[in-house]
Amino acid sequence: MDALSHNAHQCITEKSGNLSQIDKSLGILGSATAGEPKNLSTLRLKLQGEEKNLSGELATCKVLAIASADLAQKIHQKQEALHAAMLLQRDHNLWQQALALQSVPVSTWVGEREFWLMQNGQSIFAQRSLQISFGVGVVVFALSLLLRAPLARKIHRQHPPPVAKNKFYHYVPLLAGISTSAAITALTNTLSPLIMLLLVTWGGYAFTAMFLALALSPTGVLSQHFDWPPQTLRSTLRRLRSIATLAAFGLAWLVMAPNDPLSLAHQDFFYSVYHLTLLGAVFWLIWRAGAHGPFHIYPLLRALTLLALTVTAAFTILGYRNLSNYLFFGLLMSLLAFGIGLFFSWELTDFWSRPPQPSSHWQRFLRRRLKLKNDQPLPWIAWLSTITHSFVWLGIAAFILYAWGLTHAGFTLLWKYFITGFAIGNFHIQPFRWAIAILLLILLFNINTVIQQYLANHSRIIGHMESGARHSVLSIVRYTGFIIAILIALSTAGVALHNFAIIAGALSVGIGFGLQNIVNNFVSGLILLLERPIRVGDWIQVGTTQGYVQKMSIRYTLILTFDRTEVFVPNSELIAGQVTNWMYTNSVLRLMIPFNIAHDADISLVKEILVAEGQKHPDVLQDDPRGIPPTALLLDVNENALQFYLRVYLDDCNKSFNVQTDLRASVVESLLRHNVVLAHQQQDVHIMPKQILPMEGKLAQPTGGR
Q1: What angle do CA 167, 171, 176 make, to 5 degrees?
Q2: Percentage of residues in the chain with pLDDT exceeding 70?
Q3: N or C end of the chain: smaller count of CB under 10 Å?
């Protein structure tokens, strides 16, 4: 049906294209007119005949497409109905399964005993080759146990080895002994079903417990993310080891089951008991581990998982074997996949967030290639971490889908949609092209960053420019690179760039309603970057805000004030308003420092003191063409004081406040040493004797004084 539907849709596409070409040709020929050449009439008739035939073929293809779609839907519905009926089919319950074992004939039990305990007509334990293999395995186990500690110290070159590694080496002797026994029994052809069951069970236990101990040690991965006490870690390790042993036993049993003399109906009881035992172990693990962080913050998820395990156990007891197997495999594989995903995710997080280590080979290689220092972070770490985490969880998701019954055909269909895409309305989406576009966008963004870093640190092109000009060039390069990267990524994703005319029209409507300020700031930012009336590092004043330009972006300018406050000023205010730039042409600054002196002071002495103190300061320009030497000016005489000004020029306006503080302090001290009095505001009060007001009904007596 899939092939029929595919061919029908291909036929529709092909015939529709041919009809479109014929319609265009007929449109070019036009309607028949009297006296036209005969060849035109013949061609028109021929095209009309082809159009009629193609219309009939197109109708047939559409009928086939509709019929195949309807039939495929019916097949799918029938398949779902059969699957549901199979899952809900009820067999014997657990008690009936146990009673069914009584009807097993004695010959079957004899065959069962011979299947597990006999090989080649004799007991497997009486075979000398099997005894030798197990003896050699015990010897290898003992030797590995004795040599474990020295080898661990030699490998790690320290005493004792780390706790996590010590836990890892704890199971190496057991795994070595089991592997040796399995190899010898396989070579001597004494690998009977029972021996295989035992070896696989213990080997799976040793192999799984080795890595569980590594993860659950006090310095392992789990202890770094879970604040669990050592006792909880040890109890969790024991439960996980028991679950691993049961899983290895079940796997070995499934491998040996096809040759078992017991029929499948008689084996149901043993499968049910095994399911209940493993479900109980997993239930107990989740019940105890869920009471600790971070699982206790997800009580609903924990409750749903425990409920699903309970329901699966209930279906097992009631005899819904197919549904029980489906839920059993899906739940346990999902929990296993989720745990493995968390483990690898934490390992990747620790790996990528690990501080720079010169001893690491890959870090040393990258630093040498990128010419980075040891204290500089490696670039692209965040992107690499995101990509690796995405691949891990995509693999986990695929495994979970497989555990819940997604077949090879289902994965093929998903892969087909991922590659060829699907349509939403008139828009065709290809996830594969979008994934490539995203990766290309990440790569281009990082290349743009590397180019900026190279221009900022190593390039001779802008190295001779001052800091403001370099910032403008780097900003233009950054935004140009972003635009080019986005356009390339959209083109790779299959987005037609000519459709941006529609987007531009929509944006124009948006600008008319509420985006005027954003566009105004954007255009103002471009003007500031190109004309550069303000540069990074300039000391400017915008309204009541005064400070240094710390950053200039396409939308705003960041000003750092003198009290260390960061003010974000929209670029439109810098273009439309009045801006004072103290450092536009140079950083020279003139200071006019006022001093109020009493009226009876010696004017010449005061001027000498002011000039002398100005000449003493090291930051004041003396004989420099960019300014005038320190000068004392008497610019005002009022009723309170003689107002003198000390005029000085500084080569760096950043020192303005410090220089003013130093000069005011030194001038005041020098004036006081020369007995020059600083003036204060004063006011004269005159009392008129003839205009004394009465107080409490009486007239105050004139004093005759003033």
Answers
A1: 145
A2: 80
A3: C
User: Strand, helix or coil at 698?
Assistant: strand
Whether 706 shows a pLDDT value over 50: the answer reads no
Q: What is the DSSP letter of 354?
A: S
Q: Are strands 589-597 and 539-542 parallel, antiparallel or unpaired?
A: unpaired
User: Which of 143-157, 395-409, 577-591, 659-673 tops mean pLDDT?
Assistant: 659-673
**What's the pLDDT score for residue 313?**
92
pLDDT in tens, 10-25: 888 888 888 888 888 8
Are the CB atoms for 313 and 280 separated by under 8 Å?
Answer: yes
C-beta of residue 529 within 8 angstroms of C-beta of residue 477: no
Nearest of 688, 654, 665 to residue 617 by alpha carbon: 665
Q: How far is CA 114 from CA 128, 199, 259, 340, 607, in A?
A: 18, 19, 12, 40, 123
pLDDT in tens, 463-508: 666 665 666 677 777 778 888 888 888 888 777 666 665 566 655 6
Q: How far apart are CA 442 and CA 489, in angstroms?
A: 9
Q: For 562-618, list the strands marked E by DSSP.
A: 566-570, 579-581, 589-597
Q: What is the separation, in whole angstroms, between the first and last Cα of the chain?
A: 123
Which residue's entry shows tokens 């005029």? Answer: 647
pTM to 2 decimal places: 0.57
Cβ neighbour number for residue 528 with a 10 Å cutoff: 21
Tokens 């009928």 locate to: 63
Dihedral angle, C-alpha 463, 468, 474, 478, nearest 10 °: 170
